[in-house]
Amino acid sequence: MLVAGFPAGSFATNCYVVAPAAGEECVIIDPGQDATEGVEEILREHRLKPVAVILTHGHLDHVWSVAPVCGARDVPAFIHPDDRDLLSDPAKGFGVTSAQLFGGLTLSEPDDVRELSDGAVLELAGLELTVEHAPGHTPGSVTFRAPFEDIQVMFSGDLLFAGSIGRTDLPGGDHGAILRSLARVCLPLPDETVVLPGHGPQTTIGRERVSNPYMSDLAPSEGPGRGF
After folding, report:
1. Tens digit of pLDDT for each residue in 119-137?
2. How far lies 189's CA from each of 118, 145, 183, 185, 193, in Å?
């Protein structure tokens, strides 16, 4: 599996391009602020053809460039329904008015938006991506897991970072819910699972299990991701 990424814009949000190999189809994860040029550079370098944009959640720093990226390549965007309204109303995720957000910045939905569900397996670009609903940072936060040789790779969005977790003090955030999501989505995974987060460096589940202060007191749990 080929994974290429870069921190986009002033938020340094990690945008990832994922494909089975160079010269193949690919998916784009979380094209944030001013991500279009970086995405196009990766596509050229590895001779990739995008088939979809998939979003871990609807915050502006993760969806800023989704409409232009989808429009340029005529591909759909996938997002959880609980965050879909943030695609066209990004100010809602920050508790401000549109006029207060970056000088009145407005965004619009891509032409083709498809909704994610907990436990779904997306078969895109020759990849199998398992969707886990993981509310807490936002109501519609999700993670994506993909097998890579004998390990799993998890794109955690703003659920889990190296040494930390996503903030829960913005509208729609819920600290109790994010802890339950960590217990259900992250802790049951093998230690060698590679975590590619929405911000900062990559890590592993094993490293976070023993060193992340938000995970050290949690026990793995099972159950649906909805209803928190």
Report:
1. 999 999 999 999 999 999 9
2. 16, 10, 10, 8, 7
